Amino acid sequence: MNDNPVAQATALLQHSDHPLLIAHPRPDGDTIGCTLALRLALLQLGKQPLVACVHPIPLNLSHLPGAGTFVRDVPEDADIDLVVAIDMSDLNRTGGIYKDAWRGHIPLLVIDHHETNAAFGDVNIIAPEAAATALPLLEVLESLGVPVQGDIATCLLAAIITDTRGLRTAATTPEVLAVVSRLTAAGGDYTGIMEKTMNAISYQQMRGWGVALNRLQLEGQLAWTAFPLAEKEALGIADHDDLNLGNLLSQVREAKVIASFLEMRDGTVKISFRARPGYNVAWIAADLGGGGHRQAAGCSIAGPLATAVARVLPLLKQELARHDADV
After folding, report:
1. 7-36 mean pLDDT
2. Number of domains in the chain
3. Does residue 151 share a domain with residue 30?
């Protein structure tokens, strides 16, 4: 058997007739854009793909081609012959869509770029150096022989642009910019993504940002905010709504590491971490049961909110001290 993961993934997709493509909970542009791009490619190959995400698609991604085809759950006895987990570092990130009964009976393909990914699939394409999961997925699409143009290019552009915060992260290399240029030249709607996704913050989210910024604290090179459940309920913010606080707070000039603490209705606290280049928050997220990248990671831990903050802040200060000791 070919030991090249892309070749293995290509073979799985070519031999599948009814693949299930899963995007992670609280979906972002990378998981949604990649899932929809792969769906469109498989449709061109005569397949019948099903796309699923446990949470609703954010409004600023609902313009992407095929966004309305997502289902929220899939029964255990569904007519599927392949599962593809897209842009997630572990099986729990399917949000319960993946069923234990499928393990060992239905092949599991993982396409991801999180460095904390433990290769939980039967075939794994994991590219931690990639700016977005869209980049290793692009290799798969090319291996499948599907023309990467038009709507497929738009979906991949959305994935790359959102995961690089508008091409502003350290992962935005000349090679990434070349891919963006190529996708735009191939008919990808770059302008539409910037207008409908990047510059399309809802009133509710803006109000949420106001609460988060009002509670923002800075201690040396550490910035954080804690968002109580009562404030969420007052604004009508659902637990699955992604306020994108991590990216918002990452703009604090003085901060090297950043955290946002969002209290959930089930008693847990969702934490988003961000860090400047040279700092690493991935290990903190992993130690707390989450995952991600060196500069962007997240997890959920038990509350209440004040307890979660008190537990995590020392770890962030430890990372600051580690970096200072290494310099």
Report:
1. 97
2. 2
3. yes
